[in-house]
Design a protein that fits this description.
Layout: E1 4-7, H1 11-23, E2 27-33, H2 40-44, E3 47-52, H3 63-72, E4 77-79, H4 89-97, E5 101-102, H5 107-114, H6 116-126, H7 141-151, E6 155-159, E7 169-171, H8 177-192, E8 197-201, E9 207-215, E10 221-233, E11 236-242, H9 249-265, E12 270-278, E13 284-290, H10 297-304, H11 308-316, E14 331-338, E15 340-341, E16 347-348, E17 351-352, E18 355-357, E19 364-368, E20 375-376, E21 383-391, H12 394-407, E22 409-411, H13 417-423, H14 427-430
Parallel strand pairs: 1-2, 1-4, 2-3, 4-5
Antiparallel strand pairs: 6-7, 6-8, 9-10, 9-12, 10-11, 11-14, 12-13, 14-21, 15-16, 17-20, 18-22, 19-21
Helix pairs in contact: 4-5, 5-6, 12-13
Length: 450
């Protein structure tokens, strides 16, 4: 087992990893940028190393600085969390070259699944259902036009190196294709330094449902059922739940088996998610695989009583998995609390938290790195906390979430707490009748002041 793990991340996920390491008797090293010196992960780790100034490119993405921090502290493993370098094949390879265990996927695995066009062709080989469309990257516009005609409109153009909704364009008719092709490539080039595009059939009324998997070094994998991530804004998830209100036992079995088939085909090692689009007829199609821990992993932990970070560490240390699949015994919902103003089109709201009261009680979990007096820097993702409620039924979990949101007080900045509180009363959400298009028609109701 590892003696010391460096966490190459910040914020709540760094705190989350530190907690499990402490419970396992493993020493921890925090890394931080100059603006994160007062963050809780710096305080609670056994050691902390400053790795550069505020910009991510000069700190959390600076591989040389992170490796140097691991070497001077004698860390024998690095946990990348999510985001930053968690799915960077080069970083995984550098860790291996320095004989530091990367607690995540191998460089080969990341390359295979990180490029979406390559991932799709790999999954077709594995026999996993995929959305109809191009076979790999589209070389030029003439091919693009041909593939669109064969696939049938509407189609979705996607950046091969994409993520976060960048380089994606829905096209409903042929005369709009060229403009979409050019603008998507430009956006992809600017965001990822890569303008490769592929195409898929546009799935109407889709739900975004992912299956949590864990694979070991023996090539075996298991699944921990699904999470429904369909409530999204600009392809960014806002809230997640498990089990999905759309799921049936038969569909869960089929999707779980497909996810295991995907993981075992590529001999996947570690925790990951196989993400699917599910249409209104419950046909499901492979979308992508995330070769890291997900932001929303706590809801899975709550319904199957399973520490996913602990399992990541054990698998990385060579411990085989049990091989059994896990099914939800409870219902759990996660709301991502962001420093954003939901009344002003979710505009970022960095600044100092002047007062903070976190909710508690049975079935309420909060993963956060903030406290009263903490200043949220404008340099990183705006998420400041994850609020998770767990209960016997979906209705009880929603009611618990309403109560917890009413108790959640953050002063000094704007947050998405009011959005989530309104969401929990929305009839379509309450009935479980929502798709990835839900936010297109959602309007915040302004509060009435006396």
């Amino acid at each position: 087992m590892f003696k010391k793990i460096l966490i190459a991340n910040r914020g709540e996920i760094a705190m989350r990893v530190i907690r499990t390491c402490k419970e396992m008797g493993i020493k921890t090293v925090a890394v931080y940028s100059t603006v994160d010196a007062e963050s809780l992960h710096v305080r609670f780790a056994d050691e902390a190393v400053c790795i550069g100034p505020a910009p991510s490119s000069e700190s959390y993405l600076k591989m040389a600085n992170i490796i140097a921090a691991a070497e001077i502290t004698n860390a024998d493993a690095i946990h990348p969390g999510y985001g930053f370098l968690s799915e960077n094949a080069k970083f995984s390879k550098i860790c291996e070259e320095h004989e530091i265990k990367f607690i995540g996927a191998s460089a080969e695995m990341i390359e295979k699944m990180g490029d979406k066009a390559t991932a799709k062709s790999t999954m077709i080989e594995a026999g996993v259902p995929c959305v109809p469309g191009s076979e790999g990257v589209i070389p030029d516009f003439e091919t693009c036009k041909k593939v669109a005609k064969e696939t049938g409109y509407p189609v979705m153009l996607k950046a091969s190196a994409g993520g976060g909704g960048k380089g994606m364009r829905a096209v409903w008719k042929e005369e709009d294709l060229q403009a979409a092709w050019e603008s998507a490539r430009q956006e992809s080039k600017a965001a990822f330094g890569n303008d490769d595009m592929y195409m898929e059939k546009l799935i109407e009324e889709p739900r975004h449902i992912e299956i949590q998997v864990v694979g070991d070094s023996n090539g075996r994998a298991c699944h921990l059922s699904e999470r429904d991530c369909s409530v999204q804004r600009r392809h960014q998830k806002l809230t997640e739940e498990t089990p999905s209100p759309f799921m049936t036992d038969e569909l869960r079995e089929k999707m779980g088996n497909a996810a295991i088939k995907a993981a075992e085909y590529i001999k996947y090692e570690g925790a990951g998610t196989v993400e699917f689009l599910v249409d209104k007829h419950r046909n499901f199609y492979f979308m992508e695989m995330n070769t890291r821990i997900q932001v929303e992993h706590p809801i899975t932990e709550q319904v199957v009583d399973y520490d996913l970070i602990r399992e990541q560490i054990l698998v990385a240390a060579g411990v085989p998995i049990s091989g059994k699949n896990y099914y939800p015994q409870l219902h759990s919902i996660e709301c991502r609390i962001n420093a954003e103003d939901p009344y002003k089109d979710f505009r970022p709201s960095p600044g100092k938290i002047t007062n903070l009261h976190l909710p508690g009680g049975h079935g309420v979990r909060i993963d956060t790195h903030v406290y009263s007096g903490y200043s949220i820097p404008p340099n990183y993702d705006s998420m400041i906390a994850k609020l998770i409620t767990t209960a016997q039924t979906r209705e009880e979990a929603i009611n618990k979430m309403k109560r917890a949101l009413d108790e959640f007080v953050v002063e000094g900045i704007k947050t998405t707490v009011p959005f989530h509180r309104q969401l929990m009363d929305h009839p379509d959400y309450v009935s479980g009748n929502y798709t990835t298009k839900f936010m297109e028609d959602f309007e915040m109701e302004e509060p009435e002041y006396d």
